[in-house]
Amino acid sequence: MDSKVTLYEHDFKGKSKVFTKSCPDLTVDGFNNITSSVKCEKGVDFIPGKNYKGQIFVIKDGENYGYDKFKGYFNDKALSLRLLDENDFNGEPECTLYKHFNYTAPTLTFADDVKSLKCYNFDKMTSSVVVKSGVWVGFTQPNYDGYQSLFLKGSYNFSDAPNDKGGFKNDVLSSFSKIMLKPSAPGKMKLLKIDYDQAVARTSRTPTSVFRWMQVNSGSVVQTVPKQEEVAIKKEATYEFKWDRAAKVSATLTAKTQIPLVGKTGISMSADMSVSMGSTAGTNKSKAEEWVPEYPSKIKPYTRSTVTSTLTQGNISIPFTALLCDESNTERTIIEKGVFYGCQYFDFQTECKDTKIPTPKPK
């Protein structure tokens, strides 16, 4: 399995070194005890103490950890770098936790990341672990934080074994993350199908004031409003495909497909459009629109005329399941999941309100 990991002396700055294979002693490469951030472009590695001993910090392809994340564990302490064997990642991931020693019930079985075991009444209650397939990382804190233990296929009781050999203390684990590397397609990836789970979509609609104008006619005759400078309200709709942590999706994946839209009353689908949905695509623009408010042509005597325009911002987050394949071999397919995030603008409203002002008293 190819590997490419870059260590930095500072927060992705200063002295750096690229590693493509395991290194038992970073002293040889001048990086002993000075690492403050790390970037992994290929493969899966972990950073332990010298000669692969001590606490570990697992990082997989596509992940970057800056000083803020790294400082609590290995800032200026990293002593070695080790690549995991690709053979460890075969099969669909499945892990079972046991509350008691020697694999005794109650149990909890899962096949996807668990952000917090507290949600399953299993927080800090694990005494043994069985990994049926895949590779898993156990964390001592929720949200994949805290100290880590690496679990390959096999059975583990709590013990003083090294952390990279499934060693963990009794009743300390709070979250789990799978590491499952699917073989990279030799050619470009292609989207065959994508399904959005509208039943669990989250939407919000927020009206916002985007324009205000006011003019007062303090005279006794109708006032003609002079031509006003046109003001255009411009907004850009955006979208993002955020893949699951373990998804194996190329960074440059593009496709012609529909995306969900949140409207005034519900969810609809756009027409087919070209979208960027690769693992590093981030937030993209889908449509630029503009609206122009209208001014009154005349204002009545002793009247304050106010024009207010509002525009509704709609946000949506919706889980999706995508069927992908190698562009040169449509039979070589994989299924990946993630969450789609979209932001659109609609329901532009302009209201003109006239308010009477006091008339002057006769002299």
From TrEMBL:
InterPro entries: Beta/Gamma-Crystallin, Beta/gamma_crystallin, G_crystallin-like. Pfam families: Crystall. It comes from the Eukaryota. Residues 4-84, 94-179 form the Beta/gamma crystallin 'Greek key' domain. The keyword Repeat applies. Keywords: Repeat. SMART domains: XTALbg. Belongs to the beta/gamma-crystallin family. This is Beta/gamma crystallin 'Greek key' domain-containing protein. It comes from Mytilus coruscus (Sea mussel).
